[in-house]
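note to self — DONT lose this again. spent like an hour looking for the file last time. sequence + predicted structure for the chain T wanted, 54 res
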Amino acid sequence: MQQALKAAGSRSEIVVFPEAPHGFHADYRPTFRAREAAEGWQRLLAWFRANGAA
């Protein structure tokens, strides 16, 4: 997927949080991981700003 994004000229990025399980951003689930969720959210907002979506 990384190679396909690069080949397509996409400005998208794939970030993996190896220790975070599925649903780690949902604060109502036992899988919630505050640190990873906060970092992911900040990355999302930065990507939106950088790409004219915010």
